[in-house]
Amino acid sequence: MSYRLTLAEIESSVRKAARGCGLDWGLAEEAGKAARWLAAYNLPGPESALAQLQELAAKDYRAFMPQNSTSPWQASGGLLCPIITGAALADHSAQMLDAKVFTLGPTAFPLLLAASVGQAARRHRTVFTTAWGEVQISCFENGLSIDGNHDDLLLARVDTVSCRQDDLSRPQQPPSTLAYAIDEATVKGIDELTCKIYAPATEASRAGAGAGLTDND
């Protein structure tokens, strides 16, 4: 069974799931935007985001932040989180305009990085390319181009990723959909993380629910 969600619904649900797994609201916003951006190109953004959030759940996400004072960027926890690292890359996107290449060390679900880089490409009206394994995604102002082994888009871990500005004029794929089909397992996983936002019910909260026995009208 699958559910067809609008892009706005995808962004909202992944944002709440990210908050449920412990990310602050700013990073949760980035997770939702990344899932939405990829889904607009019919790429597995919600699925990749959920897999990464499940890896982060109950962990200190700061261990997966990039230490960008070193090259390549590394994380003390071993794997860079693509959501957090994507936000950092977006902050450094102006430096990529100066032909500076950012090299990242071991990274989880690098497809999510391409979403953040793609949003920066639109903001700067330029082309940024993210590459790992045998695939690269070139993000244009209003489209993308994928070259190489498409199977590598789905890698859960890679040893290195590069991000750079490019001067390309190849054919590009525009956003292709306003809704995206998500399978039942992904919906369930997102819902399970979202439920962690809400405080568990207590005897006091249950007692305070409803009109009670006293009618003040």
What is the makeup of the main sheet?
A: 5 strands, antiparallel
| Number of strand elements | 9
Our measurement of the CA-to-CA distance between the termini, rounded to an integer number of angstroms, reads 48 Å
Q: Number of helical segments?
A: 8
What is the mean pLDDT?
87
Overall morphology: globular
Q: Beta fraction of the residues? A: 15-25%
SSE arrangement, N to C: EHHHHHEEHEEEEEEHH
Description:
This protein is an alpha+beta fold and 217 residues long. It has one domain (2-196). It is 40% helix and 19% strand. It is built from eight helices and nine strands. The chain has helices at residues 7-20, 25-40, 45-56, 82-91, 93-96, 111-124, 184-194, 203-207, and strands at 2-6, 102-104, 107-108, 127-132, 135-140, 143-148, 157-158, 161-166, 179-183. The strands form three sheets. It has a five-stranded antiparallel β-sheet. It has a two-stranded antiparallel sheet with strand order 1-9. A two-stranded antiparallel ribbon has the order 3-7. Helix 1 (7-20) packs parallel to helix 3 and helix 2 (25-40) crosses helix 6 (111-124). The chain starts with a strand and ends in a 10-residue tail after the last helix. Mean pLDDT is 87; it is low at 204-217.
Mind sketching the topology for me?
Elements: E1 2-6, H1 7-20, H2 25-40, H3 45-56, H4 82-91, H5 93-96, E2 102-104, E3 107-108, H6 111-124, E4 127-132, E5 135-140, E6 143-148, E7 157-158, E8 161-166, E9 179-183, H7 184-194, H8 203-207
Antiparallel strand pairs: 1-9, 2-8, 3-7, 4-5, 4-8, 5-6
Helix pairs in contact: 1-2, 1-3, 1-7, 2-3, 2-4, 2-6, 3-7, 4-6
